[in-house]
Amino acid sequence: MLDLHRTQAAATVDVDLNGIIEKVLALTGRQLRSGGVEIVRRLADDLSLIQGAPQDLQQVILNLVLNASEAMPGGGTLTVSSQNEDEHAVISVRDTGAGITEENQRRIFEPFFSARVTGGGVGLGLYLARNTVEIHQGTISVESSPGKGSTFTLRFPKR
Fold it and tell me: Where do the domains of the chain lie, and which CATH numbers do they carry?
């Protein structure tokens, strides 16, 4: 199953990451709001385009947004931001949820690792997200503290 995802990125085109973020938030907005999640957008008006496969990148951002929502079962704030940094277009997905222990932060991008106590998932979401980001010559990182939430940051080379 993992080998199926190790292919090259689909045909690449100029990608507007802000447009992808807006699609994901339109898709998930009702679910997020009904769960008590406030959505904050901080999107750069001048965010650079990147080269990529839009559907693959949309899946990555969707995964991060849904994970953030699951980390805030009682509600909270989801902040999605974009900005240009040097030669990169940068996306951040931040939640005010439970946070991730330092030990789990070291393992969350491993295949089949899941820190969920109950409910679905097989531990492939962040592993596949990392692979997709790397196929796009980007990086994914996490900053988190238990009880204070998490921030996942994606960096992609500008077109």
Answer: 2-157 (3.30.565.10)
Residue 89, SS3 per DSSP:
strand
Q: Name the nearest CA neighbour of 15 among 92, 68, 82, 95.
A: 82
Instruction: Report pLDDT digits (tens) over 94-149.
Output: 999 999 999 999 999 999 888 765 555 678 899 999 999 999 999 999 999 999 99
- Give the per-residue SS3 of 117-156: CCCCCCCCHHHHHHHHHHHCCCEEEEEEECCCEEEEEEEE
Which H/E stretch holds residue 93?
strand 88-95
Q: Are 75 and 82 in contact (CB under 8 A)?
A: no
